[in-house]
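Running this now, will post back.
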Amino acid sequence: MSELDLSDRYGQRPMRWKGLALVLLIVGGGWLIWAGLHHSRPAISPTLISFSIPSEKAVSLRYSIDRRDANSVIICTLVAHDFAKNVVGQIDDTFPAGAAHVERTTLIPTRSAAVNASISRCRPSSQ
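Update: finished.
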């Protein structure tokens, strides 16, 4: 006896989804690789190295930036926070065109005692 095959009985054809799945795999895989490589190296990459509090009216922030285009002018916004996470100091620090990797220590003046400092954002100048 042979096993009952319903597709022979009802005239169903096998589905042809393997070609579509292969095309979607190639297109989706290519896009995933491109997106990963494109976003893994942003145009501007700031790195906080350390901060110290030399006085109640200032915070010293040591940080570096890496930029893909060494000829671009970069503006970084640095902020200092108090114990309640309020912003007590903020400055914009400008990096002129030059080296692709720059390390700098900047003093942020504060209106009251700060407990930490951070890099809020870095952006290219519109000049």
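The radius of gyration is 28 Å. More later if anyone needs it.
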